[in-house]
Every structure is written in C-alpha cells, then in structure tokens.
Amino acid sequence: MTHEKWLAGLAARARAESPPRVDVAAAVVAEVRRQRPEQYDPMAIIAGGSVAAAAIVVAYAAQMWSAVQDPIVALMASMNVVLQ
Amino acid sequence: MQPSEAAELLHFLLAKLPPRDRLLLTLMYLEELPVARVAELTGWTKTLVKVQAHRAKAKLRKLTDGLEVEP
C-alpha cells in the first residue's frame, strides 16, 4: 500500500468519527430546581398599596357624606348664622 | 483501527506539520476538496496547491517513518 493510499484510508477512518453525545438536560433541570422562587410579587405589593390608598379615600369620603347628610349639622349651621 | 484512534493519529501527525501544509492536507484529505476548490479557498494557483501538497505528504511520510506507523 502506498503512503498516499494509507493517508487516504486514515483520513476516511477519521471522518467516520462521531462526536460524543453530551446530555446536559439533567444538569439544567437540577440547576433550575435548585434556584429558589421569588419571595414576593412586586405587582402584589403595588396592588396592596393601591387598595390601602383607595380605602383611605373611601373612608374620608364616607365621613364627609355622613356629615353632609346629617340634618343637625344643617340646623346648627343656620342657627349659627342667626346667632351671629 | 477505530475512527477515534484514526482521528487522533491523523491530528497528531498534522499538528507536527507547518500551518500551510496542515491546511492543505486537511482540506484535501479530511474535507475531501478537489484541487481547484482548495486553490480557490487558499488563493493559490492549482499548480502551487499540487506542489505544496506533494511536499506536505513527503514531510508526513518522514514523520510516520520516524514514528514507525505501519502504512
């Protein structure tokens, strides 16, 4: 066998080599599971603050409304005007 | 010979050659490109490719003689 044929044969065998299969799925899944989930939800905090602000506004508005609806308040207001 | 062993041997031998010779033999034998395509890729003339390939193979033969690798 000539050297050229030997080289061609060696190259042909080398081309038949297949790369090793590396499965990284298990490592990736383990890393994902190892990561801790977030302790809080930012949107939940914003929603809670909005609810608190709305509750304060509603309480103040209810207070004002009851004050407006109270007839004694109107009477007293008119009496004050007369007394003055 | 297993493909992995053949690949290891071939790359070991090619690594001992100068870059120009290594490129030529890689293109011609591993990539199985014709002389015209090798000339196009390297920017050399076809004659130069043939001459360089002949010299590269001679160097490789010297290496294998020294390593006592059976042809």
Task: Explain what the structure shows.
The complex is a heterodimer of chains A (84) and B (71). With 84 residues, chain A is mostly helical. Chain A has a domain at 39-84. Chain A contains four helices and no strands. The relative contact order of chain A is 0.04. In chain B, α2 (19-30) packs across α4 (46-67) and α3 crosses α4 (46-67). Classes of the chains: A mainly alpha (84), B mainly alpha (71). Chain A binds chain B through residues 1-8, 10-11, 13-18, and chain B through 1-4, 6-7, 9-11, 25, 29-30, 32, 57, 60-61, 64, 71.
- The helix content of chain A is over 70%
Q: Main beta sheet of chain B, described?
A: none
Helix percent of chain B reads over 70%
Low-confidence stretches of chain A: none
Rg result of chain B: 13 Å
Determine Rg of chain A (CA atoms, Å). 41 Å
Topology readout:
The complex is a heterodimer of chains A (84) and B (71).
Chain A: H1 3-15, H2 25-34, H3 42-69, H4 71-83
Chain B: H1 3-15, H2 19-30, H3 35-42, H4 46-67
Helix pairs in contact in B: 2-4, 3-4
State the gist of this model.
The complex is a heterodimer of chains A (84) and B (71). Chain A is mainly α.
Keywords:
heterodimer; A: mainly alpha; 4 helices; B: Butyryl-CoA Dehydrogenase, subunit A, domain 3; 77% helix
